[in-house]
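Standup notes
- DV: blocked on the single-chain target, sequence here:
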Amino acid sequence: MIPQPTPNETALYIKEYKTLIIADLHIGIESQLQENGLHIPSQTPHMTNRLLKLIKQYNPQQLIILGDIKHTIPQITIQERNDVKKFLTTIAETIPIHIIPGNHDGNLHWLLPENATLHPSNGYIQHNIGYLHGHTWPQPKLLTCSYLILGHTHPTVKLTDRLGFSSYEPCWVKGSLQTTPLQKRYPQAKKPTILILPAFNPLCGGVAINQEPPLGPLTKLINPTKTELFLLDGTLLGTINKLHDTNH
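- DV (later): unblocked, structure below
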């Protein structure tokens, strides 16, 4: 069983379990951008259509969302109340939804349709795979899984060309955790493979993994010599430590 990124998309698919996974929708982020003088129409219809196309293409039996469905902390704006509810209702008419809430998802339970299940923020396990948003330490049992799949960081990679111009591209992060600090906190840990999803909403921005550490307590333990970055088209860029060295 190997979770596979969908080509040129920010979604993960596990064929054996017919499971589609996304993270970090941040519905309502446009309101914050507008306060900063950037007037951008709601991305929710676009994200809804993208997700429906993926569901049609892969025909999954369930969708797992790794948190930060809404954007505002802690309240719910009028845009979020309308857009989040419409998004989740539309998707839930097609497929069951499992949600592991993120740090932006306060009061999300008020907006959930019947076909959506809200799990604890410290993680959810299914088929020996642990799912977590990433802003909290996971429950210990997640560290006994084969894979641990997270969001929260919105990982990107800083790429610099020969002329010195830089760009930031969304990327996938795949690797492992450092053994000593991991087992100090989780003695029963079995070193799962860590996968960090790029944000599903393209407006989110993110953390340049080859410049600074990922967000969240657990991902601070990532081993940079054994953690690789991949572009959305599947291109392997190398390990974090090597990319970090070439960008300084």
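- Follow-up: The longest strand covers residues 166-175.
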